[in-house]
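Just scan my protein:

——
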Amino acid sequence: LPCKIFASFLLICNFSMKGAKAMDVVGIVDHDINLAIPDFQLDDSIDDIRWYLGQTRIGQLRKGRNKNLQNETYHIFSNGTLQIKNLTRYSSNSYRVEVFDIYGKNVLDRKIDLRILEMVSKPVISWNCINTTLTCEVKKGSDPELTLSLNKKAVNTSHQKVIIYKWFNNLNPSFSCKAENKVSVETSVANISCTGKGLDVYLILSIIGGGTILIIFVALLIFYISKKKKLSSRRNADEELEIRAHRVTTEERVRKPYQIPASMSQKPAVSQPPPPPSHRSQAPGHRPLPPGHRAQHQQQKRPPPHSSGTHVHQQKGPPLPRPRVQQKPPPGAAGRTLLPPRS
């Protein structure tokens, strides 16, 4: 009777273990892990233990000996625990174990979900006193959680790899940044001092900004002055050209009235051309004057009527011969002989 009771208890446990939920296990990259059989204790009634990766059998322990191991990555201890060496990200998978007694009966069937994570690295804290900004960053780690604390009080939490925080009204804050996941925890601390550094930086930036503005202003002033000089020189050149042109025009206008008499005096010579060279070379003879010159000459030689009358009344004897009065010939009658006037 006791044997029947014990066998019934094992049967009930067997059904409960087969329907049990899969167990979650976390491993670390580049580390080894041991997968123990949950809720199991080895005794003399156990004859065979088999491990599967998915549907592929990777190892077997029978009567205390390892058999059918897939490769050197796996090893089964005498208590049925599976060891996986040098885990990688590809080691994440579902593993299953089956246990059989000496009668070949499956007394246990359990599933284990293995997840491989990378350990977090130590957080790196950097800050900027100019804009009072702090940055906490973790370089490595799977699914990290960052927690930033100011003066031992949490101020920010993030599941990203970077936290950026801006502080106010505190020149000497103390920060701590903690990075953690399911397989590791790392913490960094930074005591910040921006008392003199911030002022120096602000002063330097102010000097640089003022110098830049001054240089730009001087450059614009030089450019404006040079441009103004160019415009004034062009205007002066244009004014000089206008003055010169005005002077030349005035001089030409002044010269023209003095040239008019000379041109007028030359008109008779043009209207009365000189005789040809053949006539000038001939000796002066008794060439008669032109009709115009004769009439002019006779008018000049003839005395007025009243003067001739007075001379007649004064002369009582026979008339005396009149002396010839030689007069200068006109300019065009040079070398010609004047004829005596007719009585």
Notes: The first strand starts at residue 23 and ends at 28. Residues 21-117 form a domain with the Immunoglobulin-like fold (CATH 2.60.40.10).
